[in-house]
Specification:
By secondary structure, this protein is α+β, with helices and mostly antiparallel strands. It is 34% helix and 22% strand. Helix 2 runs parallel beside helix 3.
Length: 414
Amino acid sequence: MIVAPPRLSINSDRLNRHLAELAEIGKLPNGGVCRLAFSDEDIQARSLIKTWMQEAGMSVRIDAAGNIIGTYAGTDSGLAALATGSHIDTVPVGGRYDGCLGVLAGLEVARVFQENQFRLRHPFEVIVFSDEENSVIGCKAIAGNASLNPAIYCRKDGTSIQSCLARVGGNWEALATAKRDHTEIAAFLELHVEQGGVLEDLNKQIGVVTGIVGQYRFMVQIIGRPNHAGTTPMHMRKDALVAASQLVLAINRLGSSHHGEQVATVGHLTVSPNATNVVPALVDLSIDLRDLSEANLRFLIDQIEKESQEISKQTGTEITITQKLHVLPTLSKPELMEAITNVCQELELSYDYLPSRAGHDAQEIGRITDMGMIFVPSRAGISHSQDEYTSPEQCAQGANVLLHTLLAIDHSKR
């Protein structure tokens, strides 16, 4: 017989106090946070998280990829775990909510279970993933998708991945042992700040994430012919920047007008020789495409290639497009989306459905097990900045949705 749990609720003051305390590690003069993965600040923060896990009655281990895994035992040791978590490393000038809310909300759930002497049927895990902001080695290793070429993980300061993992208790040589599957993790839920302005614009309290978009990144090189800007007639020019400008506008047009939820961005452009009196000879630019539909992304790529061929012909330039990144989209499990929606209704929280256009640890974990994500608003859509802000009330609302979704799926999952 399943015994109904007591009416459990997040301790908002404690959750937000821990967010503030964690933000003191790596705090910058401008109020932001710099806590790069594997740095002294990251190691200090990891130590604090491990202490908090132990205080919440969790057993703690570090896997070969340096992931911190805290486990709160369930009543049925034969069941796979229900897991949550995120990351605590930051970009060079970050905020206190990105990643950290997901970790500390999971810890708060464990504390609520502990103080109410309550256990799920399933073991409950909180995972702190390694290096989400750079290599995403932590979540990729758990999904079995981490590259075994150490050269691709080399840091800007020249430190090796072997030494980085050793600093945090991982082991590069045993990286493959971090791999897990659905027999160990029955479902994964990640609470995260939206990092965009959709929820705020819609005046909704919770985002039920439909999936995490796939990404393509390309570098484009456009070769023209340098010549004197004063003496070269317009019809005799092979202007690489004119060709680049037409391509940028074509990409923006495709992103804006094509049916779908895609985004298309040119965010990097360099011009050579970049001189006032010289017709541009060479342009390098980037293309970033994102959408939940892989088929739609492939269609956009085909259209961009056709546009580039036509622009090349019209301008007399050579255009080469080289793929640099391809990440497949990960769809949220419908059953988990339904559970999150039901909880929002029970808690009388407004909600809407939206994709995540930023990458998250859940994207990789969703390749090996059922995945769901919960968003709470980001003020003005700002993230990766000292101005990142989600109110204490919004943080607690998201954590309560996480808590009660876990309670719901604990009964439905086998």
